[in-house]
Amino acid sequence: MLDRRYILENQEVIRTNLKNRMVQVDFDRFLELEYERRELQKELEAVRAEGNAVAKAKGLTVDERRAQGIVCKQKEGALTAKLKPVEEEAQAIYVTIPNLTYEGSPVGGEDASATIAEGKTPMRQFDFKPRDHIDVMEDLGILNLTAGAKVAGGGFYYFIGQGALLELALSRYALDYVMKAGYTPVITPDLARDSLMQGAGFVPRGNESNTYHLEDSDLNLIATSEITLVGMVADEVVETSKLPLKLAGLSHCFRSERAHGSATRGIYRVHQFTKTEMVVVCLPEDAEKVHMELRRLEQEIFDNLGIPYRVLEIATGDLGAAAYRKFDLEAWMPARNGIGAWGEITSTSNCTDFQARRLNIKYRDGQGKLQFAHTLNGTALSVCRAMIALVENHQQADGTVEIPEVLQPYMGGLKKLTPQR
C-alpha cells in the first residue's frame, strides 16, 4: 500500500496513476473519509489527553476527579464509535489503491505492452507441421487430461512416466540454477492466511478472487509461493546485513480461474501447477539492480532450454496492484492456436515498498531508524508453461521430443522422450 500522507499530498499523481492503470477506485470518497478520520482521531487524542490531565490534576476531590473522568470516558466512547465505521470504509478503499508506476511503462492495456528484447534461440523452421503439446504428450503417454478431469474436473491433469520425471527435472534445474546466484531454496506451505494473501496483493475473498479458500477458516490455497515467501518475514525487522534476502520457493500453485478457448487448451491454464518462484527483500536503492538480475536469470534459464522467447515491458493497464514495474517472458509455441503464437512463461515484478507496508517488513537504516524494505518477485520456472514450450519447440517428425542438454542429467541421461508402452 502507499503511504497515506503521500496520497493526500499527491492527489493528482494518484488520479493519473489510477487512470493509466485503468483501475476503478472511489478516490473522492476515500479523501472525504480520510480527512474525516484524521479530524476524529485528533478529537479522540484530545479527549484522552484531557482524561489523563484530570487523573493527574491537583486540587480536585476524589468525587470531582471521578465525575470528570466519567465525562471524558463517555466522550471517548462516543468518538470511538463514530470513528470505527469511518476507519473501516476508508480502509476498504485504501487497500484497493494500487502501487505507483514506473514512468517508462507503456501507457494502455495489454496490447500496449512493448517488446524490448528477444532470446538467443531463433524460431525453428519446421520441415513438418508441428503438433500441439496435447497431441504430442498424449501420444508419448506422458499426459492424461481425461483422467485428470475424471478425478478433479477440467483444468487438472496427470503427468505419467517420463512426464512426471520431466516435471521434476524442470523444477530441479531451475532451482539449482538460481541457487548458484545466491537464492536459498525453500519449500513453503501451500496455504496462507487471508491477511498474508491481501498483504501480498491478492484478493482472498469475493467474486473477483482467483484463489481457492477453505470454508470456515481464514486459509487459502496459494496462487504463488511469492505469498508465503514474503509472509515469512511479515512483521519482522530484517537485519541489514542479511539484505538482499534471496529466496527461491518451490510449491504447488492453485488458480480458480480458467478461461476457455484454443489459446488455453491443455495445460496452458490449469487449476494446479508446480512453480519455482524467486522473491527478494532488499534495500530501496538496490531494487532496480535486483529487478534486472531477476529478468536476467529468467532469460538465461530459457536460453539454456533452447526456447525462443521475447521480453515485454508490461503496460500500465496490465500491471498487478502491487507491481511498480513488470517484465514478462513470452515463449514462441509453434502449434498454439493451430498456427503458432506467443504464450507467457514468466514474469518479474518490482513491488517497491508496497507489499512491505502491508506486511510490515522493515530494516534499520544507517541512522538506526526503521524503514520499509522493498520486495521483488520473479518466476524462475512454471512447469506447465515451460513444458508446452519445450515439447512444441523440440518435437521431432517421428513424434519424439529431444530433451535439452541441461535437463539430461536430471533425466538419468535420457536424450529423448519416446512413446511409453
Describe this structure in words.
The chain folds into two domains: 4-94, Orthogonal Bundle (Helix Hairpins); 110-417, Bira Bifunctional Protein, Domain 2 (BirA Bifunctional Protein, domain 2), CATH 3.30.930.10. 39% of the residues lie in helices and 20% in strands. It has helices at residues 4-9, 11-21, 27-56, 62-94, 133-140, 145-152, 162-179, 194-200, 225-232, 287-304, 354-359, 383-394, and strands at 114-118, 143-144, 158-159, 184-187, 191-193, 219-221, 236-237, 245-254, 272-282, 309-313, 325-333, 341-350, 361-364, 370-372, 374-382, 401-402, 416-417. The longest helix has 33 residues, at 62-94. The protein is elongated, with a radius of gyration of 26 Å.
Fill in the keyword field for this structure.
Helix Hairpins; alpha+beta; 421 residues; BirA Bifunctional Protein, domain 2; three-stranded mixed beta sheet; eight-stranded mixed beta sheet; 12 helices; elongated
Short description:
This protein has 421 residues and is an alpha+beta fold. It contains 12 helices and 17 strands. The chain has 2 domains: 4-94, Helix Hairpins (Orthogonal Bundle); 110-417, BirA Bifunctional Protein, domain 2 (2-Layer Sandwich), CATH 3.30.930.
- Please tell me the total number of domains: 2
Rg measurement, Å: 26 Å
The CATH topology name of the largest domain reads BirA Bifunctional Protein, domain 2
Any idea of the CATH class of the largest domain? Alpha Beta
* Structural class by secondary-structure content: alpha+beta
Oligomer: single chain
Give the termini separation: 54 Å
Tell me the strand order in the biggest sheet. Answer: 1-10-11-12-15-9-8-4
Low-confidence parts, pLDDT < 50 over ≥5 residues? none
